[in-house]
Design goal:
This protein folds into two domains: 7-85, Glutaredoxin; 91-202, Glutathione S-transferase Yfyf (Class Pi), Chain A, domain 2. It has eight helices and four strands; from the N terminus they run E-H-E-H-E-E-H-H-H-H-H-H. It has helices at residues 16-28, 44-49, 69-79, 91-117, 120-144, 159-177, 190-200, 203-213, and strands at residues 7-11, 33-36, 58-61, 64-67. Strands 2-1-3-4 form a four-stranded mixed β-sheet, covered by helices on one side. Strand 1, helix 1 and strand 2 form a beta-alpha-beta unit. Helix 1 runs parallel beside helix 3 (69-79) and helix 4 runs parallel beside helix 6. The protein is globular, with a radius of gyration of 17 Å. The N and C termini lie far apart (35 Å). The structure holds glutathione (GSH). Glutathione binds next to helix 3. Glutathione (GSH) binds next to helix 3. It holds the Pfam family GST_N_3. It is found in: Cytoplasm, Cytosol. InterPro entries: Glutathione-S-Trfase_C-like, Glutathione-S-Trfase_C_sf, Glutathione_S-Trfase, Glutathione_S-Trfase_N, GST_C_Tau, Omega/Tau-like, Thioredoxin-like_sf.
Length: 218
């Protein structure tokens, strides 16, 4: 496959789904243009890129649109294969990583939304269920991936490190807003907390936050 010439990311600074794409491109060293989409007033150009879901992120590579963040991450990993692999070479290990990625997206994502958008009893229930999922994820990663390093994927961050990042940001924000709420608890999920802390120190994380801060969000 020829190396792509023009890479453009249509995203929104508030969106964790877009953050993960910024990080993947930057870990790979891909040079790209960024277009901030006004989600309240989506342009005709943007709607033509993602007519099915009408959501960000959409990555456009040499004029071809790729929607859906998890699909984009896999596309990026395959297209810039030589640089910083995000998925393991071994197909069984890769299946495990994709299994837990799917768990994060489809089990934890909706609950994280519920925590942010409910109050009282409903919120407590969502928090409790979410804490259970975090523990399941910690134990599952430990059992299935069991590599040693500061990151989930070992010495270098991979797909799971990337997609967990928006949770850390979101929950730190919630913990500050709601007194007594503790979502990222070192006693409960020591490994995940330490992976997330290591990831937070990366230049790609800080550079992306700096770049997106011009749109009013870190
Ligand atoms: N499954 C999608 C979810 C993307 C998503 O929910 N994007 C939100 C921003 S966080 C969006 O574009 N919302 C605009 C809308 O729904 O109109 C992905 O992983 O890319």
């Amino acid at each position: 496959m020829a190396t792509p010439k023009e890479v453009k990311l249509f995203g929104a600074a508030i969106s964790g789904y877009c953050t993960v794409v910024h990080h993947a491109l930057r870990l790979k060293g891909v040079v790209y243009d960024y277009v901030e989409v006004d989600l309240k007033n989506k342009s005709k150009e943007f709607l033509e890129l993602n007519p099915v879901h009408k959501k960000v992120p959409v990555l456009v590579v040499d004029g071809k649109p790729i929607p859906e963040s998890l699909v984009i991450l896999q596309y990026v990993d395959e297209t810039w294969k030589e640089e910083h692999p995000l998925l393991p070479q071994d197909s069984y290990l890769r299946s495990k990583v994709l299994f837990w990625a799917d768990f994060i997206y489809h089990k934890m994502g909706p609950l994280s939304y519920a925590i942010r958008t409910t109050e009282g009893e409903a919120q407590n229930k969502a928090v409790e269920e979410f804490m259970g999922h975090l523990k399941t994820l910690e134990d599952g990663i430990n059992k299935d991936i069991h590599v040693h390093g500061p990151f989930i994927h070992g010495e270098e961050p991979g797909l799971l490190d990337v997609i967990l990042r928006p949770f850390k940001n979101g929950f730190q924000h919630l913990e500050q807003m709601i007194a007594g709420m503790k979502l990222l608890d070192k006693e409960h999920i020591p490994l995940l907390c330490s992976y997330m802390d290591a990831y937070a120190e990366l230049a790609v994380v800080k550079d992306t936050e700096l770049m997106l801060s011009q749109y009013g969000h870190a």
